[in-house]
Amino acid sequence: MENSDSTVSVPPPAPLSVKKENVMPINPKIAELTESRQELLTRIQKLKEDLQGWRTKLDTQVKVYRDELSELKNSLNTEVEQLRSDFQELKTTLQQQQEDVTASLRNLGLQDVSGEAKETEVPIVENIDENAQDIPIGDNSKEIKE
Length: 146
Prior knowledge:
Elements: H1 2-9, H2 13-108, H3 113-127, H4 137-145
C-alpha cells in the first residue's frame, strides 16, 4: 500500500508549477495587449481626423458648386429676360412694318389683296347650280374658270 500512497503524493506538485508558469507570462501579454490597444486607438484617431478633413473639403466643394450654380441660374434668368424683351421688340417692329405696308398699299389704291379675293369668290360660289356643289372646293376654281 505504501507504493500507492507515494504515487498519489507525487502528482500534486506538478500542477502548482504549471500555475506559476501561466502567471508569469501574463504580464508581458497584458503589456503587449495594452500597446496594441494604444496603436489601434491612435489609428482610429487618425482615421477620425482624416474623415473630418474629407468632410470639411466636401462641404467646401459643395458650397463652391452651389454658389456657381446660383450664379449660372441668375445669369440664365437675365439672358432669358433679355431674349423676351428682344422678341417683344421684334414683334412690335414687325407689327409696325406690317401696318406701314398696309397703309402704303391703301394709299396706292391697292387694298388688301386677300380681302378682295375672298369677296369675289363668295358670289361665284353662290351662283353655281346644285349639281356642282358635290365637287370638292379645290376643284370649284377649276370648274369656274372653264
